[in-house]
């Protein structure tokens, strides 16, 4: 999909010692093969249009200009036989800050942003200061850290050791802040309520079938 999914994880926040994973992330990303999507062995196809490619390249360039480090740059990728295709290679950018354009705008391409913090509290603060609130995930072997994350992060979809859940009809779509419009979620119970005509039924059954009397007043509990 080349990152073209609304629930794709576009930003990774590396906490404490996990920052040592950055070289491994880059090496793993280099192994993704970009090309014509129908060919065997291809991991990622092109982005959907020329405008989409130009947007990706523009945001990668802005990251360089604003001081981030582009550790793996797929801007100049050319796929043999498809020289005019809309291909962007795997790109990894570290040192990303909240004020940067590449962070504030959705890239919607094969670009992974890396932010580095010292504590989980700092990471949670980044999540909650973002104007959008669709999904967030934590990968940890620490149950206390996972509980703190799910209780304090204000995003609507939370994953614990799994990527952000894709909202399917059985789920409630629980995006928050800028990731939500209207007053009802359209999946899950809220969607069923919206499309359902409700009925209220009040019944009163006598203890005995022989005890049948007309009663015009409201039932009284005795």
From TrEMBL:
GO terms for biological process: L-valine catabolic process; thymine catabolic process. One of its GO terms (molecular function) is methylmalonate-semialdehyde dehydrogenase (acylating, NAD) activity. It holds the Pfam family Aldedh. One of its GO terms (cellular component) is mitochondrion. Residues 2-201 form the Aldehyde dehydrogenase domain. InterPro entries: Ald_DH/histidinol_DH, Ald_DH_C, Aldehyde_DH_dom, MeMal-semiAld_DH. It catalyses: 3-oxopropanoate + NAD(+) + CoA + H2O = hydrogencarbonate + acetyl-CoA + NADH + H(+); 2-methyl-3-oxopropanoate + NAD(+) + CoA + H2O = propanoyl-CoA + hydrogencarbonate + NADH + H(+). Probable malonate and methylmalonate semialdehyde dehydrogenase involved in the catabolism of valine, thymine, and compounds catabolized by way of beta-alanine, including uracil and cytidine. Belongs to the aldehyde dehydrogenase family. This is Probable methylmalonate-semialdehyde/malonate-semialdehyde dehydrogenase [acylating], mitochondrial. It comes from Trichostrongylus colubriformis.
